[in-house]
Amino acid sequence: MLGGSIVALLALAALCAPLLTPYDPLRRGGLALLTPRVGHWFGTDDLGRDTFTQVVYGMRVSLMIGITSAATAVVIGVLVGACAGYFGGAADDVLMRLTELFQVVPRIFLLILMVALLGQRLVVITAAIGVLSWPGTARLVRAEFLSRREAEYVMAARAIGAGAARIIFRQILPNSLAPVVVNGSLLVGGAILLEAGLAFFGLGDQNIISLGQMIYAAFPLMRDAWWASLFPGLFLSLIVVAFNLVGDGLNEILNPRALPR
Amino acid sequence: MSRYWGRRLLQAVPLSLGVVVLTFVLIHTAPGDPVATLAGEQSTAQYQTQLRHDLGLDRPLYVQLVRYVAAIFRGNLGYSFTFGQPVLALILARTPATLLLMGTALVISTILGVALGVETATHVRSPWWNLASVAAAIAYSLPAFWVGEILILIFAVQFRWLPIVGMTSLGGYSGLAHWLDLGRHLVLPTLTLVSFNLALFARLTRASMLEVLAQEYVVVARAKGLTPRNVIYKHALRSALLPVITIVGLNLGTMLAGFVLVETVFGWPGLGRLTFDAVGARDYPVISGLFLLTSEAVIAANLLTDLLYGIVDPRVRYE
Amino acid sequence: MWVQGLLTLVIASLVAVVAVPTSAAQSPVAQRGGTLVVTLDADPPTLNPALSVVNQTFWTADQVYETLVSYDAAFKPIPRLATSWSVSPDGKTYRFGLARNVKWHDGVPFNSGDVQYTFGVFGPKYSPYYKTVLAALEAVDTPDANTVVFRFSKPNGILLSLLGEPAFAILPKHLFEAGDPRTNPANNRPVGTGPFKFKEWVRGDHLTLVRNDQYYQAGLPYLDQVIYRIIPNAASQEAALEQGEVSMVLATVLPNDARRLRNTPGIKVVSPSVLARIIGLWPNLRAEHLKQLRVRQALSLAADRQRMVDEIAFGEGTVARGPIASTSPYFDSSLPFIHRNVAAANKLLDEAGLKRGSDGIRFTVRLRHVASLDTFAKTAQILKENYADIGVRVDILAAEVTTTLTAIFINSDFDVAVYSAPMGPEPGLALTQYLSSQGLTKAFFSNAPGYQNLRVDQLIAESVATIDPTKRAAIYREIQRMIMVDLPVIPLWEPRFLTAYRTDFENVFTQPDDRYINFTRTWHRSR
User: Fold this and answer.
1) What's the whole-number average pLDDT of chain C?
2) How open is the CA angle C77-C80-C81, to the nearest 5 degrees?
3) Residue A259: is its pLDDT beyond 70?
4) Contact B71/B78 with Cβ under 8 angstroms?
């Protein structure tokens, strides 16, 4: 699986960042606006910071944001979807309306609002993205639960007196995980792009470097320093592509119906 | 059927109201006072207090909320002090630009995307499959604003073929020249948006087509001797499109994100840019208005897709 | 295509212009005609400069409306709607003689009643800037149709430096006196006395002004039209200038492009600025460590100002030595340059008793700045690096503008802030607002550091009452020296607001700052 290997490689690079480069991403490492060359493989930005270093550390940030927000979204989505699907009735109605609300509202608006108002901190950004990404997962999980609710093994569990929570988590959920996992890996890519979008509006966390912020900072320098937008954009795309490929691959494995006979 | 519709419409109302209250609460309970941008650097404390009073900002929150909701019902979305216009007029003035861009991009990406999706679904064993999959995955993953930047760099700056920014050039062309000029400005932003949406539609269509093609009634149709082409386009496609339409409807919100970013990069005078300017200036009336109207649009679009679903697929039954 | 045609035309005319030898002894005769196209990065919220606080309104409306005086490049007042003036020795009475045969664009004659309305009725109620400058104005008398007298309760030495502000444009009484001026349609279709009349405004696209053929100064203006083109992106504005689509990029040229534009034949880059802004680090004098003078001195010594100018402004800027920028006529040139000295800074902090912890950090400061302003963001990042060298950890809290300003001014919720306040045209006003006890109002744009120095208060009050500019300058110099001793603000560097325009236009920018820009005498050399 191409996607998986790319992800692994990039993650490894990101983790080993200090080993790959002697520079500090937030401190000047050379003269400003150097073109790519030996010693500064990707050139330097307008404050003299090494672009390669920034890309490597930036990947760390992007990966972290992507995975954490996706995880948050999945957790919330599973909880909401499971409750809605299992309990049905009024709970289902309320939860689904809530889901619809969050799904209908244009995410980017809310995101800009939340970050602009609550502060541009990494924690806030990650939480906001996670909180705004759960509707898809919730719907998926709910559909799964709706169809499995009346299955035999569930009725058997009920018959021996298992509580709702136990049934949800021990019985139905493990069987429903496949689409959730696929969805989750796609969410990672989406989350990373959202963060980049936020950074492009100048709403990133100023204390760290992220790939999105690099692209944003490079915008006015476009004509003088093409390397400053090319490399972060390239690697950002690479990460997202990798996760999407992983998602596709997982989909093929877990959903055999997707392939024709 | 009409009872279902009545119910759905009725449900849309509290949803919309929920949106309004949500925006209002978010904006007003967070720190930040719009007087900062309205009063100017050289204003006195008294002037600022007076301004706050004139804008009704010193009233308790629930009073402001009630006044706002009441005004909406009268069609008054407030007045924007940053832009010096009534909010509704402001939004309406910017809508055509966004619709033009959105419409063009959507039409192109839908047609191309569906076609691509159908092709890759029906020619699974060809090398096209993998290539198309990967290409779609890539196009889907590129950050739209970065693509936009690169396109500007190449086509507008380096080669000077196309204008860098904006919707029209100076000179006030009329008639055909005007449309040509508009067209030239449309090219790059549309290209940026299309690359993303195309991939999305292609993937969705392909996934859906594959499911449908595996269905029994398709096999039966083939067995009946209908040509493959007939089978694909007349029968399979129609059912395959339904989930696509639904998902697109639900994803309108995500697609809007792309528009906000692309409009900013290309300086397109539409609603996307208005959003960011308004948020930066804490222009509450404009932000609430934008939020409300776009949410309403998405709700309406969802209702429409449900309607389409009900009409097109005879198997669907609503109580 | 037509682009190449236009380009050829522009190049051809530029070549023709360059090829024709100009004699230095004679000044060329102004030609009538031509259209000046200026870029704007956003629509003005209103076209009434008396109600607006943003540059876009000033740049456009200043061609339609007029103030009583204008300024030459040296910031000396020159006649506009007021052709003569005199001040009483006690500084409380100003008498102005007004221009004759002036008509509003709708044909109604202009007279002293309009001035009286603007300053006596409209200003106190609706103008944001009014009370800051004219709180002591008691009355505006009109002995006859062409004379107006301002009477103050306290001596006012700086009135003439402020009357030229677009915010004090004279408004037509006959259009504004009825109803609420803030919703008056004339705010979007202005009627003034100026050299250009409003023609049309297509929001988001362009704003067109045409020559006022009934202008009271005979023969002026030379230009047929002034068109403002809304182009939100600076790089696009510059590209439009280079391709000949626009004639002038006003105050928004990116510093990294300035050198390239300077070297482009046919384009000139200027940046006059009497508003004298500096970008400074404003400490909260109530905060734990910043209340110590030694700490502020250390922070000042550790900042790498030259790097800020080189890397953020690409050299288009100057290191700051005081609270008022060197472009102001009142700048004290005897102030010493502050050179980065990490060793001395470390020593000061040691002396202050702030030892380094086991991680090398002495203490942490929270630094706020408005996130959307790149220059502030990069300044903050350089400071973060600089202060790491002296054991001070910087936590950057960037947020959007209203949140940041509320935190800084209203709640005093900050340790240091990267901020820029305009210190001109008359420093006395800004100093009162930002650095005097009078400014301790907890309103926006007030004394955020919490600085109180009675002697400085006295000097500031004296400065605004001093009529003689030379004496006033001396007082300002003393104030600047005292501020650099106390350090209620740590000056960092002076940005430039760059304007670029095509040289086939003459007399384009003769004012001392883009705020006053005025195309009355601009003409286009077409051959």
Assistant:
1) 89
2) 130
3) no
4) yes
Between CA C343 and CA C349, with CA C345 as vertex, the angle to 5 degrees is 115
Residues A69, A129: contact at Cβ < 8 Å?
yes
Q: Which amino acid is at C501?
A: Y
Q: Give the tokens for residue B213.
A: 């093609």
Say whether B34 and C402 touch across the interface (CB within 8 A). yes
Backbone angles phi, psi at C393, to 5 degrees: -90, 135
Q: What is the mean pLDDT of residues B35-45?
A: 79
Torsion of CA C21, C25, C27, C29, to 10 degrees: -70
- Please state, in angstroms and rounded to a whole number, the distance separating the CA atoms of residues B115 and B125: 17
Nearest 5 degrees, angle CA C4-CA C7-CA C8?
85
- Report CB contact under 8 Å: B48, C53: no
Nearest-CA distance B319 → chain A (Å): 16
Please give the Cα distance from C450 to C440 (Å, whole number): 7
| Distant-in-sequence, close-in-space partners of A160: CB < 8 Å, separation ≥ 6 | none
DSSP result, C79-134: ESSEEEEEE-TTSSEEEEEEPSS-B-TTSPBP-HHHHHIIIIIIHHHH-TTHHHHH
Q: Which of B136, B248, B297 is nearest to B203 (CA)?
A: B136
Asked if A113 and B23 come within 8 Å (Cβ–Cβ), the reply is: yes
Mutate to test the interface with C, among A24, A206, A229 (most CBs of C within 10 A): A206
Are C227 and C35 a contacting pair, CB within 8 Å? yes
Q: Which of residues 252-311 of C touch B (CB under 8 A)?
A: none
CB within 8 Å of C242: residues ≥ 6 apart: C261, C264, C267
Q: Which domains does chain C have, with CATH numbers?
A: 6-26+46-192 (3.90.76.10), 277-495 (3.10.105.10)
pTM of the predicted model as reported, rounded to 2 decimal places: 0.81
The nearest CA of chain B is from the CA of A101 a distance in Å of: 6
The residue written with tokens 């305009």 in the block is C422
Closest-CA distance, C406 to chain B, in angstroms, reads: 6
Instruction: Determine how many CB atoms are found less than 10 A away from the CB of residue C278.
Output: 28
The length of chain B in residues reads: 319
Q: Is C364 on the interface with B (CB under 8 A)?
A: no
Q: What residue type is C486 in one-letter code? A: D
Q: Which two tokens stand for residue C196?
A: 């250009």
Task: Give the rounded distance of the alpha carbon of B272 from its chain centre.
Answer: 9
Burial of C255 per CB tally in 10 Å (0-12, 13-18, 19+)? buried
Shortest distance, CA A170 to any CA of chain B (angstroms):
30
What is the Cα–Cα distance from B300 to B13, expressed in whole angstroms? Answer: 11
Residue C324, SS3 per DSSP:
coil
Q: For the segment C453-496, what is each residue's pLDDT rounded down to a tens digit? A: 999 999 999 999 998 889 999 999 999 999 999 999 999 999 99
Please give the Cα distance from C485 to B86 (Å, whole number). Answer: 50
Token pair 């606006």: residue: A33
Per residue in C161-215, pLDDT (tens digit) is 999 999 999 999 999 988 888 888 899 899 999 999 999 998 877 899 999 999 9
Query: Contact at 8 Å (CB) between C348 and C297?
Result: yes
Beta-carbon contacts below 8 Å between B and C: 130
* Cα B208 to Cα C118: distance, rounded to the nearest angstrom: 69
Beta-sheet strand order (sheet of C93-98): C82-87, C93-98, C147-152, C137-144
Q: Residue A30 forms beta bridges with which residues?
A: none
